[in-house]
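The instructor's notes for this session suggest beginning with a concrete chain rather than abstract definitions. Hand out the sequence below and ask the class to guess, before any prediction is shown, which regions might be ordered.
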Amino acid sequence: MFFTVQAALPHLGDGAAIILNGSVHAVLGIPGWSAYAAAKGGVRTLTRNLASELAPRRIRVNQVTPGGTKTPLWSPIASSDDAMAALETRIARGIPLGRMSEAEEVAKTALYLASDDAAN
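After discussion, reveal the predicted structure:
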């Protein structure tokens, strides 16, 4: 992400928006996810620092941090429909709304953050 943002910056006008994709794994501490969690922890820190560094150009830097979201990420863990349903039930127990999110919900959040409405 660092190199992608670095390459994009010369092409972004003042007042632009950058949205980085994080994960709750950056703070959960789940066994077996160390490398992924470390990378997403770096995204959290990168987001904060870029927001500060790019503030003089009014470039907004935000991070979307979805919780359990229905994506192909879960395929190695839940390779059948029944296994996925059981996994969704287990994950949903730790989510206040009692369900996993849909990828479209995360996309709508990113679209809002990229919009002029989020600049106010």
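Then share the key points. The chain has a mean pLDDT of 93. The CA atoms of residues 19 and 111 lie 9 Å apart.
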